[in-house]
């Protein structure tokens, strides 16, 4: 995960059970440091239910704290997971679907 700006995080790693604890700590710290957090997930190659739970936790914590959490640059795997779980509307972020999808 890299930080491009104070309120934007770009994930370059998978979001799976193997990274979940470290990513949880990083995400909650990032949320604490800003009022608007944007997650660029274009670099996420693999996501499992633990990664999805992290996104749901972060979104819920943002609402609870009165902060905005948005997702941008959905990778194909992130798109697939959100669509499969029927959670696209829960996040409410615009998703750009490539023409060859």
Report the helical percentage. 40-55%
SS summary, helix count: 4
Main sheet: strand order: 1-2-3-4
Q: Which spans of ≥5 residues are poorly predicted at pLDDT below 50?
A: none
Q: What class would the helix/strand composition place it in?
A: alpha/beta
Rg on CA atoms, Å: 13 Å
Q: So what's the overall shape?
A: globular
Number of DSSP strands? 4
Give the mean pLDDT: 86
Approximately what portion of the residues adopt beta-strand conformation? Answer: 15-25%
Report the major sheet: 4 strands, mixed
Summarize the helix and strand pattern as letters.
Answer: EEHEHEHH
Q: Distance between the terminal alpha carbons, to the nearest Å?
A: 26 Å
Give a topology summary.
Blueprint: E1 2-5, E2 8-10, H1 20-32, E3 36-40, H2 49-65, E4 68-72, H3 76-84, H4 88-91
Parallel strand pairs: 2-3, 3-4
Antiparallel strand pairs: 1-2
Helix pairs in contact: 1-2
Question: What does it look like?
Answer:
The protein is of the alpha/beta class. Helix 1 runs parallel beside helix 2. The radius of gyration is 13 Å and the shape is globular. The N and C termini lie far apart (26 Å).
Features:
four-stranded mixed sheet; 101 residues; globular; alpha/beta
Structure summarized in a few sentences:
This protein is of the alpha/beta class.
């Amino acid at each position: 995960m890299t930080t491009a700006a104070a309120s934007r995080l770009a994930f370059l790693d998978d979001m799976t059970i193997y990274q979940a604890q470290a990513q949880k700590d990083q995400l909650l710290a990032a949320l604490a440091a800003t009022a608007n957090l944007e997650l660029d997930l274009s670099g996420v190659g693999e996501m499992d239910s633990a990664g999805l739970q992290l996104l749901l936790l972060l979104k819920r914590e943002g609402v609870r704290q009165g902060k905005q959490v948005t997702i941008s640059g959905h990778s194909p795997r992130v798109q697939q997971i959100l669509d499969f779980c029927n959670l696209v509307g829960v996040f409410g972020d615009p998703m750009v679907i490539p023409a060859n999808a």
